[in-house]
Each structure stands twice: as C-alpha cells, then as structure tokens.
Amino acid sequence: MAEKRAVTAAELIPGVIAGIDAIKSTYGEWDVHPSMHVDPDALRSVLSELTSRLDDAFPFFHPQYAGQMLKPPHPVAVAAYTATMLLNPNNHSIDGGRATTIMEREVLEQLVTMFGYNPDYLGHLTWSGTTANLEALWVGREINPGKAIAHSKDSHYTHSRMGEVLGVETVAIATDSRGRMDLGALESEFATGRIGTVVVTLGTTGLGAVDPLADIVPLAREHGVRIHVDTAYGGFFALVGDELDAEAARHYAAIPLTDSIVVDPHKHGLQPYGCGAVLFNSQDIITYYKHDSPYTYFASTDRHFGEIQLECSRAGASAAALWTTLKMFPLTRAGLGEIVAPGRRAAMLWHGLVSESDVLQPYQVPELDIFAYLPRVESMSELDRVSHAIFEMAADTTRPQQTHLATYVVTAAQLAVRGIDLIDDAPTARIMRSVLMKPEHEELVPEMHWHVEMWSRRAMERELG
Ligand SMILES: *Cc1c(COP(=O)(O)O)cnc(C)c1O
C-alpha cells in the first residue's frame, strides 16, 4: 500500500480509457461510419471555445467559493464515470446494465446500512433528489389516498410543487427560531386527521436545520401518518453523529424508525450531478410499481431497477462512479465521515468568529455545515442593500483574492424570533449564507472571515455613508 495523496482526473482517465478500449478490442475492429467523422481542426477549435466559455462561472472547485451547495465531483468519481460512460450502460434493466446493476445494489446496501434501514428494503438511485422525493410522495399518496402531505415552511420547495403534480394537498408547518419544524403546529395538523404523509427534513437546503424527527415519529405513528425523511443534502451527516449537537444526533438516530428516505450522492457524496437515491424501509410497497413492458425485460428473470422506479433510462455510470468512490471513501466515520466533518467544524468556527464581530452577527447556530449571518445594521432595507453589496464586493476583486458567498431571504419576523430587531421598512431582506461543504473550508475560515469583515465594513461605508 502506498501513502495517500491527492489525485487528478487527468492522471486517472488515460488508464481507465485504456481498460475500456481493451474490452472493446476483444470483439474485433470495425470502421467508424463516415457520417460520424469530424474535422479534427474544427473540433479542436470548438473544444477550445467550450473550455473558454466554461470560464463564465463561479469557481465552485475552489475553497474560496463558500456560496451555494456546489462543488465538483471527486476525481475518483470522474474517472469511474468517464470509463463507464464509454460503454453507456442503462440501469433501467439488467440487460441494459449488467455490471452496473450489481454495483448499484452494492451501493444501496451501503446506504441502507448507513441509515440503519431494513435489509429487506426497496430502493434505487435516481437522477435527482427531486425525482427521489416525488417517488416517496407518490407511494405515500397510494397508501393514504385523499390525505395531505405535511412539510415544514423551510423544507425544499419541491414538496409543495410535487404535491401539485400528484394532485395531493400540501400543508406548510411553521418553523421555530432555529428553522426546525414546530412540533406543536404539526401535532395540531395531525389531530385534524387530514395528513397522510409527513416530510421530515434533516438538513434544510437553506439553513441546514434538522427537524425533530425523534419526537415526530411517535406522534406520526399515533395518527397513522407515513414518515418520509428528506436528507437530500444532510444524509451523509448520519456518519458524524459525534460532531453534531446532541439534539441533532438524536434525530439522525431515529432514521431507522421511518418509512422512506432520500439522499443525494451528488451533493455530499462526491458525485457528479445525476445521482440521487430513494430507499423504502419495507418491500411491502412493491405492489404500487406493477406494470408490464413488452420490450425491455427479457434476458434476465432477476428484478430490474425499471420494475421498481418511476424513471426509465438511468445512467449506469452513476452507479459505477458511486461504487468506485465508496471503495475509496466507505460510508463510515473514518471514510466519507472525514470529508463531511470538517465542514461542520468550519461552520461552528465561523459562527464563533462572527459572534465576536463588531460588523457581523450570526443568524442562528449552524446544525450542519451551512452558516447564515448578517451585517449589524438598523433596518430591513439597509440589511438588504448591505448584504447584496458584501456579496458583490467580496467577489469583485482579482481572482486569488475573491471570496464567493451567497445570500438568503428572510423576513423581519424571522429575524425577531432570533433576537434581531430591525426597523421593519421592507417585507424581506437578504442576509449572508455560506455552505461550507469542502473539507478545505475548515482551515480557510479565519482568512475568509477576515475578508468578509473587511468587505462588510466597506459595503456599509458605501451603502450607509
Ligand atoms: C437539493 C435538495 C432537494 C432537491 O434535490 P435535487 O437533487 O436538486 O433535485 C430536495 N430536498 C432537499 C432537502 C435538498 O437539499
């Protein structure tokens, strides 16, 4: 075994392409049809145009990008995806993707173990967290027809939108001063008898808030409500319960008691986009998937993913990339856990620095690796102007000096429940939000904080005089 070191896609890709070419060569040579030929000079120029056009983006790959939930995949995933894509298996059916269907089953078992779900689970990878959630809400509708979906006001907007798609009423439950679903408000809704499924978010997209799952489980069971957990963003924090607040850890520990769960390997699982997952804690729901297809399933009688998913074609390369990544970074505290834990520590570190600042203040204590904060100003309109100016100014300098942040919209009432009272002269205002999802962020926090404080002072000077 060699010592661990950083690897690049450029170093890994030639080897895997050679491996795939070796497979192809065993079938004998053939001539590529002339219609598929290209002019190499023209192509070089188009590819060069492509790379220069791709420069029109925020630098998601750099630790100085601490804005939205964006980062490139690990080079291991890129190499595995590239190799597999050259064969382009389709995990809709075993015939479409023999090797990658088996890899997908293996990664699903690892996800099931991470969440403490039933070994007799049902589930699969998806193209996205959106389709994964849609599928869980659809099953909820089939089981509790005519009943509504409850989700928190801070949950992902996909839940109310998918309620519309499914023709199911949705009810937004109030959140508390930490952005978590309010138990009392949820219980009142349960008491009406109209709720069929509750969506519990562990790691809201905006603030990384953790809904009180452990307390929701007994209430939901009492009222016969299905429990769907949306951990599209926060799922992999299940590996680092020791880094979380005791409360948040208690709610993650309740995951095994729920009915379905969604996680996005394309968020915290080091994967390229196109990799979500949905898991059901029992196979009983398989009856809802019954359908016949005359043209796909023939060579194998084993279960095809197409028989238990809403989507049809799906990239076998996604399963292969995740499989390879988890070989290098298993779903353990010492594996992928070591990659997500520093972001959580970075958020706490930054929260500590901002709490001491004379120009900035925290919006709330982070529960995962998302930190929201704001300049110390007098009114909502000032807050909005200064926040936007910080966002713009911090990114508007020479590239190595840039800091990339994001903003988040709040109301005066949401600030007030957090003890921040501003003159209510505008319905909403932007505050600052940073997703610290790269392990490199931990070390960079003091420097980023220094920069953000400096830009905040300048933004206040520019906007408020
Ligand atoms: C990102 C996210 C989604 C949507 O998933 P996509 O993969 O973007 O389609 C849903 N819920 C939560 C909590 C998320 O963070």
Chart the SSEs and their pairings.
Elements: H1 9-25, H2 40-53, H3 75-85, H4 98-115, E1 122-126, H5 129-143, E2 148-152, H6 158-166, E3 170-173, H7 183-191, E4 195-201, H8 213-222, E5 226-231, H9 246-252, E6 260-263, H10 265-268, E7 276-280, H11 316-328, H12 337-355, E8 360-362, E9 370-375, H13 380-395, E10 406-411, H14 412-416, E11 428-435, H15 441-464
Parallel strand pairs: 2-3, 2-4, 4-5, 5-6
Antiparallel strand pairs: 1-7, 6-7, 8-9, 9-11, 10-11
The structure holds pyridoxal-5'-phosphate.
Describe this structure in words.
The chain has 465 residues and is α/β, with parallel strands linked by helices. The chain has two domains: 85-328, Type I PLP-dependent aspartate aminotransferase-like (Major domain) (Aspartate Aminotransferase, domain 2), CATH 3.40.640; 337-464, Aspartate Aminotransferase, domain 1 (Alpha-Beta Complex), CATH 3.90.1150.170. Helices cover 41% and strands 13% of the residues. Helix 6 links the parallel strand 2 (148-152) and strand 3. Helix 3 runs antiparallel to helix 11, helix 7 (183-191) packs parallel to helix 8 and helix 12 (337-355) packs parallel to helix 15. The longest helix has 24 residues, at 441-464. 44% of the residues are buried. Bound molecules: pyridoxal-5'-phosphate.
